[in-house]
Amino acid sequence: MLLEVRNLHVSHGDAPALWEVSLDVAAGQIVAVVGPNGAGKSTLINTIAGILRAREGQIRIDGTDIAKVPSHRVCEHGIAIVPEGRRLFTHMTVLDNLQLGSWRADARGSGEGSLERVFSLFPILSERRHQIAGSMSGGQQQMVAIGRALMSRPRLLLMDEPSLGLSPAVVEDMFRIIRTINERGVAVLLVEQNIHKALEMALHAYVIEQGRIVASGKPDTLLGNPRIREAYLGV
Asked: Looking at the domain 1-78+155-235, which fold is it?
């Protein structure tokens, strides 16, 4: 198993945010985490990425527990994150933002090849490589954020609300690109407000509510459960 999360407990100060959360992502899978706003989805993603610290529990990559690994070393285990809100360096160029993603030692030597792969996914970024990132549209900025993450040559891509704030047409393109990334061998753990799109793409899904995993299984099974549909998926 590529990623194994076991009995994860996370708090924001004294306020518990996640309780006994466990999930798996196998190599090459797309796994979705869905649930209402404030359920703990972003907290989960940020804890796996090392941005937040777990109070208890394990986060294992290929069997190695990285829960206590310093934040800046998590990427060395083949993990990259596309954070909610993109978090670009908006006063820097597209190219500068992308190249920051290849700072990891294992990725640095293949930066040019990684850059060409990103440009093959997002031709518009090749055309606008010298444009200031903050001057681009929301959809184009999301492309930069995804491209930056891919520059580190991850095995596991964590995606936090990639369709947030995008037009319907751009959302369709975004999910098509996520599928292509996965077909190129990158596992994806997807937190997404567009529940139907997320479940349409995923091989397996987890429903989180008030910091706990309350259901998991094949997307079709979850969508076919009336209680889950009404209580957790809002449909």
From this structure: Rossmann fold (3.40.50)
Start-end of H helices in 123-225: 123-127, 138-150, 168-183, 195-201, 219-223
CA distance 174 to 166: 9
Pseudo-torsion of CA 26, 45, 119, 168, nearest 10°? 100
Closest CA to 92 of 157, 136, 49: 136
**Tokens at residue 229, please?**
């549909």
pLDDT in the model for residue 107: 55
Handedness of CA 194, 123, 159, 154 (dihedral sign): positive
pTM of the model: 0.93
The residues spanned by each domain of the chain are 1-78+155-235, 81-153
Weakest mean pLDDT among 17-31, 96-110, 141-155: 96-110
| β-sheet bridge partners, residue 215 | 207
Packed helices 168-183 and 111-121: angle between N→C axes, nearest 10 degrees: 140
Query: Which of helix, strand or coil describes residue 64?
Result: strand
Distance (Å, whole) CA 212 – CA 221: 19
Residue 229 CA to residue 72 CA, distance in Å, equals 39
**Spatial distance between the Cα atoms of 16 and 35, rounded to a whole number of angstroms:** 17
Q: What type of residue sits at position 235? A: V
Q: From CA 210, how far away is CA 195, in angstroms rounded?
A: 17
